[in-house]
Specification:
This protein has about 325 residues and is mainly α. It is built from 15 helices and 4 strands.
Length: about 325
């Protein structure tokens, strides 16, 4: 029987392997950005950047988990919208807060878990499943919210805008989620199986791993981050919208890949992903301070994903530029 331990990359045991390079890039960008716009480096702006990292960081943890396992979910933006629509509708109906929050998280779990079920049971390509799910979930969010934005009043104000020991509550949520994912991937058999699955699905199967169940569980866990992120986003904004999550799928993917997570699976760290999140949010903050259109930010994000994907291919040895161009 194939040894599963042998298939687990060394970076599972040393999760900060790829962090220093990405970290230096972030530090260099912060210095350059502060030079370009002095307000960028102020304490208030840096605090706002950290707060803005909360929603994207939570989503990116789940995205990173899926990518490491060789899976993908392009529907998380629509799933976030659906979570806010369900939670917001219940809040406006006067349902108990705890019940509303539970329904929000369960909506994220169900939305992602359904994709995992299709991938695991019917063995449909994850990319195709997530594209179809994205359209379906967006339509469902529009139906639930009657196609218009809504206000949740001050129901989640203490969470979204409040602090505990001077640390914003949403940042505390991000820290807790990130630590849980680090422990999950580093210190559990599930984490080792996730890396092994991304490295070689066939080898994992031969080693006795219940591959299809593992895929389903990965989607379910990622769904939890969607639910938490959707609630956090709505709490910060004080409002919801059936399209509020649009664009987060690309940003989460970009953050994970920038942080060293491989498109082909089997490689990545939560710490690296969070550094990718900081870089993306920092770029957005600088562009906003320079009064640059949000459309330009989307162009930059898309370009970063493409460049990061090329770097990943070169780093993994799947693309040799010299031979390709010869």
């Amino acid at each position: 029987m194939t040894s599963l331990t042998a298939r687990v990359p060394e970076r599972v045991r040393t999760p900060f392997t790829h962090v220093p390079g990405a970290l230096w890039i972030v530090l260099l960008f912060l210095i350059i950005a502060s030079t370009i716009n002095p307000f960028f480096g102020t304490a208030n702006n840096l605090r706002e950047i950290v707060i803005q990292c909360a929603v994207l960081g939570i989503l990116a943890c789940g995205t990173s988990l899926l990518l490491i396992a060789g899976l993908i979910d392009f529907a998380i933006g629509a799933e976030v919208s659906l979570v806010t629509a369900v939670t917001g509708s219940m809040l406006m109906a006067g349902d108990p807060l705890v019940l509303c929050l539970a329904a929000g998280v369960l909506t994220g779990v169900a939305a992602a878990g359904l994709q995992g079920l299709v991938v695991a049971v019917f063995k449909v390509t994850p990319f195709i499943v997530s594209l179809g799910a994205s359209t379906a979930y967006l339509g469902l969010a529009l139906l639930v919210a009657n196609g218009r934005p809504f206000s949740i009043g001050n129901n989640l104000e203490n969470y979204g805008l409040g602090s505990t020991f001077s640390i914003p509550n949403v940042v505390i949520t991000l820290i807790v989620v990130a630590l849980l994912f680090i422990v999950l991937l580093r210190c559990t058999r599930f984490g080792r199986h996730i890396y092994a699955l991304g490295g070689s699905e066939r080898a994992s199967f031969l080693a006795g791993v219940r591959v299809q169940r593992l895929k389903l569980l990965a989607y379910v866990i990622a769904g939890v981050t969607v639910g938490v992120a959707g609630i956090t986003l709505m709490a910060r904004a004080g409002t919801g919208s059936p399209t509020i999550g649009t664009g987060y799928e690309l940003q989460a993917l970009a953050a994970a890949v920038i942080g060293g997570t491989s498109f082909s699976g089997g490689r990545g760290t939560v710490a690296g992903t969070l550094i990718g999140v900081v870089l993306l949010i920092s770029i957005g903050s600088l562009l906003a301070l320079m009064n640059v259109s949000g459309s330009v930010t989307n162009v930059v994000t898309g370009a970063i994903v493409v460049v990061a994907a090329i770097v990943d291919q070169v780093r993994s040895g799947k693309l040799r530029l010299v031979n390709t161009l010869a």
